[in-house]
Amino acid sequence: MTMVQIEQIFPSLTWRIRHEAMYPELPFDSVKLPDDFDGIHFGLYLNHKLTGVVSLFHDGDVYQFRKLAVLPDTQKAGYGSQLMAYIINFCKIQKATKLWCNARVNAKEFYFKFGFHETDKTFFKDGYDFVVMEKEL
């Protein structure tokens, strides 16, 4: 039986997952965010092994999630969706009015499933095209 648990974690626990899942070709330190210690971080544990992470930051009642990442060998199994549902519910409990992210263009279909819509803000960084996506809560 597969056991999944999501809980708040210390910021540095996100770095290995971010690196392996998102930017394995870049130096390890490139996945550390300057404001990591100001955020709220969640880890998805699959059978007691940290498998996915996401980081939340807020400015008043507007929240941004960053670095949603699931280990490559467990992707496409619904764990990213479980993390996304968890942070949407968390933001609602916190009385957030909006949740947004810088989404990789090749992943925007994933965010559409959760009610996010594209804005007209796009950019290119670290070899990827991004679009700002947001959801009213």
TrEMBL record:
Q: What are the entry keywords?
A: Transferase
List the GO molecular function terms. acyltransferase activity, transferring groups other than amino-acyl groups
List residues of the N-acetyltransferase domain.
1-137
Give the matching InterPro entries: Acyl_CoA_acyltransferase, GNAT_dom
Which domain of life does this protein belong to?
Answer: Bacteria
Please give the Pfam families that the UniProt record associates with this protein. Acetyltransf_10
What positions belong to coiled-coil segments? Answer: none
What is this protein identified as?
GCN5 family acetyltransferase
Q: Which organism is it from?
A: Pedobacter ginsenosidimutans
